[in-house]
Write a structure and sequence with these properties.
By secondary structure, this protein is an alpha+beta fold. The chain has 7 helices and 7 strands; from the N terminus they run αββααββααβαβαβ. Strands 3-4-7-5-6 form a 5-stranded mixed β-sheet. A two-stranded antiparallel sheet has the order 1-2. Helix 6 links the parallel strand 5 (141-147) and strand 6. The radius of gyration is 22 Å and the shape is globular.
Length: 218
C-alpha cells in the first residue's frame, strides 16, 4: 500500500508537468518533467524508508516533492535555454537538437565558412551573435565547439582546417562575452560525416560546425 502511495505521488507530479511543444502544438513530457519524475520516485522511496512506520506515508510524500524539485533543476534550465535558442535561430539554417540534458547546434557549411577557408563567412556573424546572446544569459553550461570537413583533400589538411574553424568560432564567442573557461574547441577533420561526400549537397552538410552545450561539471 505504501509503495503504491509513493508511485501515485510521483504520478501526480508527472501529470502536472505536461507541457505543450510550441513548435508542434502537441502535449509532451519535457526533460524537466523526466528529471522531476525520476527525482520524485527516488525521493518517495527514500522518504518512506527513513521514516518511522507510522509516518512512512508522510515521508514518501515529502521525499517525492523534494526529489522532484531537485531532479527537475537541470532539465528546467536546459529547457529554457533550448526554447530561447530555437527562437533566436529560427530561419537561420541552424539545426537545434536536444539530447537528454544537452543541446547540439548543427551549423552547415553553407552558412559558416567558404570552401577551403577558415575565415568566418559574413552571414555567419549574425548567427553567432544570436547564439552568444543566449549563452551569455545561460552561463552555467560548458561548450564543445567541434569543426568538421568533407572528404575532399588530404586527411591531414582536413584535420588542420577543422581545428582552425573550431578555433575561429570559439574565439568569436569569447569576444562576445563568453568565458574562455567554458569553451573547448576541437577539430575532427573528415571523420563522422552526416551525409554522402559524393554529392555537393552532402559535402556542404559535412563541412559543419557543431556547438554542444551541456551542464557544467565544475
Amino acid at each position: 500500500m505504501k509503495k503504491l502511495f509513493a508511485v501515485c505521488v510521483a504520478g501526480i507530479i508527472l501529470s502536472g508537468c505536461q507541457t505543450i511543444d510550441p513548435y508542434t502544438g502537441e502535449q509532451k513530457v519535457g526533460n524537466t518533467t523526466k528529471g522531476a519524475g525520476i527525482g520524485a520516485i527516488a525521493g518517495a522511496v527514500l522518504g518512506a524508508a527513513v521514516s518511522s512506520k507510522d509516518d512512512r506515508g508522510k515521508g514518501a510524500l515529502t521525499g517525492a516533492l523534494v526529489g522532484g524539485a531537485v531532479g527537475g533543476g537541470i532539465g528546467y534550465y536546459m529547457d529554457q535555454q533550448e526554447a530561447l535558442l530555437r527562437q533566436e535561430l529560427q530561419g537561420t539554417g541552424v539545426q537545434v537538437e536536444r539530447i537528454g540534458d544537452s543541446i547540439r547546434l548543427i551549423m552547415p557549411g553553407n552558412i559558416t565558412f567558404a570552401l577551403n577557408s577558415d575565415r568566418i563567412a559574413n552571414n555567419f556573424y549574425s548567427v553567432l551573435d544570436s547564439v552568444a546572446k543566449v549563452l551569455v544569459k545561460f552561463d552555467k553550461t560548458e561548450l564543445n565547439v567541434d569543426g568538421f570537413t568533407d572528404s575532399s583533400g588530404s586527411f591531414e589538411y582536413n584535420q588542420q582546417l577543422s581545428e582552425r574553424r573550431a578555433a575561429r568560432v570559439a574565439d568569436y564567442l569569447v569576444g562576445s562575452g563568453i568565458s574562455q573557461l567554458r569553451i573547448n574547441a576541437r577539430g575532427y577533420g573528415e571523420r563522422y560525416p552526416v551525409a554522402d561526400n559524393k554529392t555537393s549537397v552532402g559535402r556542404s552538410q559535412n563541412r559543419r560546425v557543431e556547438i554542444n552545450i551541456s551542464g557544467s561539471r565544475r
